[in-house]
Amino acid sequence: MENVDILIVSLYESLFNLLRNCAEKIVKDTKVAEDIVSTVFLKLWERRKQIDFKSIEGYLWCSVRNNSLKYLELAHVKRKFSGDIYDILEMYHPPDPDNPLSILEYEETKRSIENVIAGLPPKCREVFRLVKLEEYSHLEVAKKMGISVKTVYRHIANAMDKLNKELKNR
Predict the structure, then answer these.
(1) Could you give the CA distance from residue 116 to residue 112 in angstroms, rounded to a whole number?
(2) Around Cβ 9, how many Cβ atoms within 10 Å?
(3) DSSP label of 54
(4) Cβ count within 10 A of residue 39
(5) Which of 32, 68, 71, 144 could share a disulfide with 26, CB 3.0–4.6 Å?
(6) What is the pLDDT of residues 85-132, one digit of tens each?
(7) How much is the mean pLDDT over the chain?
């Protein structure tokens, strides 16, 4: 086992900067790129007993590339569904404080949104409430509810789709 440990350390020392550069070209952020490469090496270390070291460099390059792309995908989803529900409400229908009709329409839209939220499936509603109203991170919600981060994103996406449909119908 000692030879494998030495090999991993050697790979880390010789490839870290190259792999970081590769990740950085994809994610456009040095710190994130370093985290991605470090995570890949950590996973390699944890799985060192199961990995075939004959093709390890290819594995490392592929892992860094895939993790970088996964990061971009999650970052895109996070940007797409970020924002407080009332910011979203105002984006669709900002009230004019000098116009009673505008305020009434705003309140009706707000009630519609609250009804959509109330009509969501229980887990979806809970995820939405924690992320959008209580401002928990997706990771915190995943841990708290015992679900994956991807499932959290899926619940948020479903809730936002229903809200968007409701707001478009108004």
Answers:
(1) 6
(2) 12
(3) G
(4) 14
(5) 68
(6) 555 555 555 566 676 776 777 778 778 888 888 899 999 999 988 888
(7) 81
CA distance 130 to 156: 10
Q: Phi and psi at residue 165, in whole multiples of 5°?
A: -60, -45
- Please give the average per-residue pLDDT across 16-35, as a whole number: 91
Residue with tokens 């895939």: 66
Contact 70, 63 (CB under 8 A): no
Closest CA to 82 of 124, 131, 147: 131
Cα–Cα distance for residue pair 131/152, rounded to 1 Å: 9
- Identify whether the C-beta of residue 111 lies closer than 8 Å to the C-beta of residue 93: no
Joined tokens for residue 5: 């440990």
Query: Could you please report the per-residue DSSP string of the chain?
Result: -HHHHHHHHHHHHHHHHHHHHHHHHHHS-HHHHHHHHHHHHHHHHHTTTT--GGGHHHHHHHHHHHHHHHHHHHHHHHHHT-S-HHHHHHHH----TT-HHHHHHHHHHHHHHHHHHHTS-HHHHHHHIIIIIS---HHHHHHHHT--HHHHHHHHHHHHHHHHHHHHT-
The domains of the chain, with CATH numbers, are 2-80 (1.10.1740), 85-168 (1.10.10.10)
